[in-house]
Amino acid sequence: NMSSRKLRHVEGRRVLDAAVRQSRLRKQLEALERDNHHDDPHQNVPQLTHKLPTFTDGETGRRRKSKAEVRIKQRFRRTFAALLEELQNDVDARSRSNYVSVTAPPSKFPERKFCAVCGFPSAYTCVSCGARYCSVRCLGTHKDTRCLKWTA
To answer: At 10, phi and psi to the nearest 5?
Structure first.
């Protein structure tokens, strides 16, 4: 029965089962990934460091970067994705610990749960969709703007 898999009506409330909740969560994360794929829009804005006041309290001994050094760094700047690709292609890096190969053991503590609205630690779960919330105010925001609005 397809309709019982997707939604179940309990006391006039729509309630999603665990499989549909996971599917919705995966779709929301994929939408965020698609939305956040672009580069920094401010990367080509010139930095006006020479006009800003310098607040040094007698700091000496620091070498100032030359303009040529800064230009070289700007010219050969690489994205994070390019650095990861370079690590994967580097034979020597495979034998050493690096960003890709380092892992941590599973935590001994239970998974922390955060509010889907504000990000604070949450103690409550929405009965309909399973999203977490921390207060009545966040529950109201969730019900008005998020809960079951984009169920596919």
So the answer is: -125, 115
Residue with tokens 């040094």: 56
Q: Token pair for residue 142?
A: 């969730």
Task: Record the pTM.
Answer: 0.44
pLDDT tens, position by position, for the chain (152 residues)? 444 444 555 556 677 788 888 888 888 888 877 776 666 666 677 766 566 666 655 555 566 667 777 777 777 777 888 888 888 777 676 677 777 778 889 999 999 999 989 999 999 998 888 889 999 999 999 888 877 765 54
